[in-house]
Write a structure and sequence with these properties.
The chain has six helices and seven strands, in the order H-E-E-H-E-H-E-E-E-E-H-H-H. By secondary structure, it is of the alpha+beta class.
Length: 184
């Protein structure tokens, strides 16, 4: 990001890209002309407008260390991560000591019921919770839950939305509730 020593120089450069630039003094004697409010917000969040590695505009996608870690992804090495080139920028994050997953104590049942090529999940697992919910929903409403309903329920219950929908479809297949392909 090129800065300018005077407000007028920043404005002149910014006018090449936009009609109404937003002029900001970044530090004493360093000016920049943002093309719009969104660009200014991007700079305020990430300290840059374009990725330092690939020079792609950051509105194309950035993830943060905290977002990635909270969503179960691998911890990143930098504060921010460009989704365009898959490189990090910003502060370097000290690598945490990797933890070894010892399991949740879920015992896989040996003789689980199998129908239509799908086995019922073991009792106590996250998948089984979704299946049990689908069983209850079917009994109460006399119809299968729909993906839209499962998204809402997953949000309310704190379930992984994608897993809930996937398990709903597996539950449907298990119960023979899938659409049959029509032959012509």
């Amino acid at each position: 990001m090129k800065t300018y020593s005077s407000k007028s120089n920043a404005k002149r450069a910014a006018l090449k890209n936009t009609e109404n630039p937003i002029l900001v003094e970044l530090s004493k004697g360093q000016w920049y002309g943002f093309s719009d409010t969104n660009e200014k917000l991007i700079w305020q969040c990430y300290g840059a407008i374009n990725c330092p590695t690939c020079n792609i505009h950051l509105e194309n996608g950035v993830t943060t260390y905290d977002d990635n870690k909270d969503n179960g992804g691998e911890a990143l090495t930098h504060e921010f991560w460009c989704l365009g080139c898959d490189h990090g920028f910003g502060e370097e994050i000290e690598a945490a000591t990797p933890t070894v997953h010892t399991g949740t104590g879920l015992k896989i049942e040996k003789n689980r019921e199998e129908r239509n090529g799908v086995k019922r999940p073991s009792i106590g697992g996250k998948c089984r919770i979704v299946w049990d919910y689908c069983d209850t929903y079917m009994k109460e409403h006399n119809t299968s839950p729909m993906p839209k309903h499962m998204k809402e329920t997953a949000l309310l219950q704190g379930w992984n939305e994608n897993n809930a929908i996937l398990e709903m479809y597996q539950w449907r297949k298990f119960n023979g509730l899938t659409k049959k392909s029509k032959t012509s």
